[in-house]
Amino acid sequence: MDTAAPLPTVPYDRVRVNMEREEVFLERSALPLDPRLISTITGGVEASCRDCLLPFGLLMSIIGLAATGVAGVRDPPGSVLSVLGWVLLGSGVLGVAVSCLWQQYRSRKRCGSWTLLMEPEAKKAVI
C-alpha cells in the first residue's frame, strides 16, 4: 500500500479556480516569504553573483569599448551606437570595480576573523 507524501506548503492563502474561463487566482497572505524558498527555487545561484560579476564586467567593458570605437569612426557623436557603447563601457567598468571592492571586503573580513580565532592562542603562556 502506497502512502502519499505530504504536500508542500504554498505561500498563498487561497486558490480560486474559474472553470469557465480556465483561470487560476492565487492570493497571498500578508506574511513575508521564507528566504529559503527563494534559494530552493533558484537552486542557490543567487549566492554566485559575486563570482560572475568580474567576468561579465570585463566582457561588457570590451564590448562597450568596441562599440564606442566603431561609433567614433563611423557615426557622429551622440548617435545610438555611441550612447550604447558608452553605457556598456560604463556598466562594465562599474561591474569590475564592484567586483574588486567585494573581493577586498571579503579578504579583510576573512583576515579579521582569522586574527580573532588565533588571538586566544597568542595570549596563552608557553611553558
Write a structural description.
The protein is mainly alpha-helical and 127 residues long. The chain has a domain at 52-118. The protein has 3 helices and 2 strands; from the N terminus they run E-E-H-H-H. Strands 1-2 form a two-stranded antiparallel ribbon. A hairpin with a 4-residue loop joins strand 1 and strand 2 (23-28). Helix 2 packs antiparallel against helix 3 (80-123). The longest helix is centred in the C-terminal third of the chain and has 44 residues, at 80-123. It is flat. The termini are far apart. Pfam families: TMEM100. This is Transmembrane protein 100. Keywords: Membrane, Transmembrane, Transmembrane helix. The chain crosses the membrane at residues 52-71, 83-102. It comes from Podarcis lilfordi.
Supply the key terms:
mainly alpha; 3 helices; TMEM100; membrane; Transmembrane protein 100
Looking across the biggest beta sheet, what order are the strands in? 1-2
> What's the Cα radius of gyration?
26 Å
Shape: flat
Contiguous uncertain segments of 5+ residues: none
Keywords: Membrane, Transmembrane, Transmembrane helix
Protein name: Transmembrane protein 100
Pfam family, one: TMEM100
Organism: Podarcis lilfordi
In short:
It comes from Podarcis lilfordi. This protein has helices spanning 35-42, 49-74, 80-123; strands spanning 12-18, 23-28. With 127 residues, the chain is mostly helical.
What is the element layout, followed by pairings?
Layout: E1 12-18, E2 23-28, H1 35-42, H2 49-74, H3 80-123
Antiparallel strand pairs: 1-2
Protein name: Transmembrane protein 100
Transmembrane segments: 52-71, 83-102
Organism: Podarcis lilfordi
